[in-house]
Amino acid sequence: MSIGVFRYSALGDIAAAIPVLRAFRKKPLILTSPLGHALLKNEFDDFVILQNKSPFEVARFIYTLKKRQLELFIDLQNNDRSRFIRFFFKSIDNSGVSFEQNVTHIFYDIAKKSNLVEPLDYSFTKKEPTYIVLNTGSSSKWVSKRLPVHKWREFSQILTDRFGLPFILTGDESEREYVEEIAKNIVGKKEVVAGKTTIQDLKKILREAYLVVSTDSAPMHIAAVQKTPTIGLFGATNWIVSAPFGPWSVALWDKKRFARPPAKNLQIVGDYYEGINLQEGLQKLASYL
User: Fold this and answer.
1) Percent of the chain with pLDDT over 70
2) InterPro entries given for it (predicted)?
3) What is the residue range of 211's domain?
4) 38, 101, 140, 228: which has the highest count of C-beta atoms within 10 A?
5) Domains held by the chain: number
6) Do both 82 and 156 map to the same domain?
């Protein structure tokens, strides 16, 4: 059976889908964006890429899938565009799936309806003590996800005292100035690679790290799905749905400020992170470090 799995955006959600894509008994046809292809191309071979969102490109995409004789369209995007595309195919969507769980498990519950997937892989091998990644940034749209500089200094002191490993600070070109400011204010040996990496470079850095401490972002998900112990830092966004994947990962938030996740993600910058306790996360991940 010819199966296509569709996730166009965002990069973090495409990353969160990786354990599900790996769980198919037969590698599926990956239906994604150019950015998704850049992330997944080292693990999967067969792609149909939706180059952009224009009506002409959507029509070309559907024609290509028809030509490929696609038999089942598994929709992990579930928006108006993907609903239009799947109208032309036998499909599986998110109907009946609980959204009160981690995004990877949401995707898995959708895929599971095909009866074509194995259980998710939770095997784990401890990492070599190489370096710790601090992914401190966020896109300009989500500045509310960024922690104050003094929290990163606090975290760097705890991590240096505990592990004595160097730091690599990641981010894209738009985040470089902010990341460099963080680097100036933290303790320990550090290297800033923000704006200097391709997606595959970043994927490798995160895979080979001993530990990743990250804002709610694509790098957080990329690290976790590669079984790197990951601490995700939350406040402005929902830590139930967006938590990093796997028992080697943990979501932290300020428990004094938030009794539950915000009903809607918060784009307004606020005092969301002051009470986050990194030691709590390290304790929860002790058996993986």
Assistant:
1) 100
2) Glyco_trans_9, LPS_LOS_Heptosyltrfase
3) 132-288
4) 228
5) 2
6) no
